[in-house]
Amino acid sequence: QVQLVESGGGLVQPGGSLRLSCAASGSMPSSYIMGWYRQAPGKERARVAVITVGGMTSYADTVKGRFTISRDNAKNTIYLEMNSLKPEDTAIYYCDARRAQYQYWGQGTQVTVSS
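RESULT FIELD:
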């Protein structure tokens, strides 16, 4: 079992920045591919960014150039640096960890982009 604890969500103005953190614990969490997903009201949960153990990253087209995912294996923590935030980025952001057929989710953290 992998436990994921998220932090960093909140209210930010359009054009602003936030950094989300997700601390993982459990059986060798560093062996998992980890990422961020988000879900806005009325929309499906969508992948935002993924990072492998080796540091390879992938981003949704909607956030490319604005968001950066990173991984600190020593701390078993991943981050999502969000810049140039837009109102349409408003969503609950979830951290996930996956390996083989297993997938675990964090509790979600609310990000609201509004004036």
